[in-house]
Amino acid sequence: MPLTIKVNEETFTPRQQAVLTAALDLLVENGEGLTMTAVARRASCSKETLYKWFGDRDGLLTATVQWQAAKVRMPVVDRSHLNAKALRLSIEQFARDLLTVITGEVSVTLNRTAVTHAAQEKDSLGIIVLENGPLAIRRRLKPILEAGRDARLLRFTSSEDAYRTFFGLVVRDVQIRLLLGDKSLTQSNIEANIEADVKAATDQFFALYGAKANP
Amino acid sequence: MPLTIKVNEETFTPRQQAVLTAALDLLVENGEGLTMTAVARRASCSKETLYKWFGDRDGLLTATVQWQAAKVRMPVVDRSHLNAKALRLSIEQFARDLLTVITGEVSVTLNRTAVTHAAQEKDSLGIIVLENGPLAIRRRLKPILEAGRDARLLRFTSSEDAYRTFFGLVVRDVQIRLLLGDKSLTQSNIEANIEADVKAATDQFFALYGAKANP
DNA sequence: ATCGAACCGTACCGTACGGTACGCCTGCGG
DNA sequence: CCGCAGGCGTACCGTACGGTACGGTTCGAT
Prior knowledge:
2 copies of one chain form a homodimer.
Chain A (H helix, E strand, L loop, with lengths): L13 H16 L6 H8 L3 H8 L2 H15 L12 H20 L1 H14 L5 H9 L1 H17 L8 H13 L2 H6 L7 H23 L6
Helix pairs in contact in A: 1-2, 1-4, 3-4, 4-7, 5-8, 5-9, 5-11, 6-7, 7-8, 8-9, 9-11
The structure holds a DNA duplex.
């Protein structure tokens, strides 16, 4: 019987964090390279310690994803004085952050890992990734959207729907293509277009939800 | 050395198709349940035959995904007389088909399998899924969009961009949530909202790319 | 100085699974 | 009737990997 995994306890000792870093590195380098032996060797620790700390392989995986996903923090957008320009900048900033995070190597790896995990009737990693990815962004964007509505700069009925449309406009087919390993989407390729994409998505979002838009 | 896999040859004997069906069933039932022994037992054939026909496990997997993905065919939309109403119906139909396919159990399984595969520096399955999923839809939608533009019903510069925006508006965060195993997205849940979602996405698409829209 | 906890390194075990070999049956051409 | 190709079922092999055990080492507390 494996030990209970401490999923809610986010505090890891520096040594443990070194182990998690090693595990993440292995994941990024080679998605399926995360074997207990490899992690132990990379982190210069014994397998016994891994099992003592994380219970079993799944526990180590969960801790790694959890710890790493929680590190992805969007910068908070200033909400103090909300004129049209500031709102637009905030939305643009969210689009930029969303695209940057989602196209990052770590994010792709984490999402792939979670999808693989979900393919085995285990959804814990998927929940963690969802919670720290899309849902985290949603939580931060929502007050901005509602402030925009209160200031009569935006018009929508459901902030949920508005957010999901925003997500779609920004992400489009980029994420799924990255997850599927589409070679025509290189990192430099994305970086070169990110500003144009951010602007386009923001324009479209305001076209749909701006105060002047048709209901 | 495994035999060369016949990826371009789409013709399988009925017996082979029965094997592929068994493989797909196992995949859908339990993502990681596709072991050679399990397939052989399910299809009532010998492992030796599997290896003779498909070379190795990867070949069987590729053949399964290839064969199944190619079966997903969108109905062709009539393009004969293209007034505003017909165009809108066509777009709506695409949105509906796209959503229906993407949220289907088989599609989710195939995408998960391909993502898992891509996590191991193998992108062949990802390419197959991309080619038969998003890209197939794009190929079919593109002439409709351009016909709409020629008829001055739509306005856009790049049909590529228009398609990708359409994809984003329709799919939003549904696919990634399904891939990650989000429990709050049940099949019945999606089905109940699909018509409303289709209408909303089409409305938004026309708001952005309709002839009356701002450039 | 001594003890014990924590931990490293490594050897070891069990199992699952990819891949192969082989014996047997069936159907078909001669 | 004979022989043989194709295929089924099963036994088997090798390996990779999850998980455990254990001796040796470091280090802090007493």
